[in-house]
């Protein structure tokens, strides 16, 4: 049975307060997940997963990271199989853990009436698999993958496109991210960014002027203050 006109109107972004949430490193506790997948993949090419490689991959978006990993295979005269990387990631996201207090935060925001968008640099299907397997997909209105709508990364143009596509230009939006670069791009579109600090994140020591939180509980307090 389809939604009634009244229900669709109730769920319309025009009638809701909007939250954008990054997934990896914000909702998903996936830093180690990525390390494990890349380490396993590179081992097949007899390449050690060094700190240098790890730091380099941190600076890349998903398509760039895939190209870099392919070059690692090529350097060993091996053929890189994209479907192998995707298979490893699918298996990993089926078992992904949530960040501390992520479930409680999502439940709280949902019951307060916020419309929650997952805004990810990852593939849409991986995001959906992770959210579903961890039991929180029900709290999200939509999953927006920059890759799936034609942008390799979360750039200013991507955010403009997202706001236009969802008719959110006149909405006040709070956006929780663990990437300062993404927050700076979003700020150009008047999106209110909040930085989630994490000592495992190389960007954590960078200077910036975004509101910073240490735990997800603090994000709830920020949006309540609006």
UniProtKB/TrEMBL annotation:
One of its GO terms (molecular function) is phosphoglycolate phosphatase activity. GO terms for biological process: DNA repair. GO terms for cellular component: cytosol. This is Haloacid dehalogenase superfamily, subfamily IA, variant 3 with third motif having DD or ED.
